[in-house]
Write a structure and sequence with these properties.
The protein is mainly α. It folds into two domains: 91 residues; 65 residues. The protein contains four helices and no strands. It starts with a helix and ends with a helix.
Length: 164
């Protein structure tokens, strides 16, 4: 049976739509921007609806999105693990014994303890200095108050002597 002009036209249209679909799918796979990727996804869905393939593409798109999420998670975990390994190696280097120096970690603990004692000593000294500063300020205020009282007494005595 020889196909009629309508069937030939439909086959040509389907072939063109399939070619457009393949082009758009290639662009979708290469695109990294989520906004542009979403535009391509909508275009692909329209083309597939015209070709009767919409359900297959939606399933493939869901699988692709799931795969992308798992890739992102994998890379995030990989970065964290690599960082943890790097930090562990750095800590191991600190824990090695050096020639004749003994355990580096013990020395560091002693240094921390000594610095803690020094900090406590300096805090006590600072508190004492602050108390002494307050005491000095109080003495200055008392002296100023005494001078003020003496000046007031003298002024009142002079006023009393000058008034008839």
């Amino acid at each position: 049976m020889v196909p009629g002009p309508a069937e030939v036209l439909r086959e040509n249209l389907d072939a063109q739509l399939m070619q457009q679909l393949q082009d758009v799918c290639g662009k979708y796979g290469a695109e990294t921007d989520p906004f542009i990727k979403n535009i391509y996804l909508k275009l692909i869905t329209r083309l597939q609806r015209r070709l009767g393939l919409a359900d297959e593409w939606k399933e493939q798109a869901r699988r692709d999105q799931t795969l992308e999420k798992w890739k992102e998670r994998y890379f995030a975990i990989k970065v964290e693990v690599d960082d943890l390994i790097r930090r562990t190696r750095e800590e191991e280097r600190l824990c090695w014994k050096t020639e004749g120096d003994g355990d580096v970690m013990l020395e560091m603990k002693r240094e921390v303890a000594a610095k803690g004692e020094r900090i406590e000593f300096l805090e006590v000294k600072l508190a004492a200095m602050e108390r002494q500063e307050v005491k000095r300020e109080m003495d200055i205020l008392r002296q100023s108050l005494r001078k003020e009282e003496i000046t007031n007494r003298l002024n009142s005595g002079i006023e009393d002597a000058c008034s008839p």
